Amino acid sequence: MAKKGSRIQVGLLCEICKSQNYVVSKNKVNTTAGLKLNKYCRKCKKHTSHKETKKLD
């Protein structure tokens, strides 16, 4: 069975090229707003802003 808890997995999508580069977990109780982080995009080959989306398999 799956764990019961408040942590969920979300994907981080590059705002420039729209590719999903990272999968992270977040606590949906403590962090209600969407994540927006500066991360490295392998497709753009530079640091860009990444925003939270649903996890794509």
TrEMBL record:
Domain of life, per lineage: Bacteria
GO MF assignments: structural constituent of ribosome
One Gene Ontology cellular component: ribonucleoprotein complex
Gene Ontology biological-process entries: translation
Pfam family, one: Ribosomal_L33
Alphabetized UniProt keyword annotations: Ribonucleoprotein, Ribosomal protein
Family label: Belongs to the bacterial ribosomal protein bL33 family.
NCBIfam families: PRK00504.1 (NF001764), PRK00595.1 (NF001860), rpmG_bact (TIGR01023)
Record's protein name: Large ribosomal subunit protein bL33
Organism whose genome encodes this protein: Candidatus Roizmanbacteria bacterium GW2011_GWC2_35_12
Encoding gene (name): rpmG
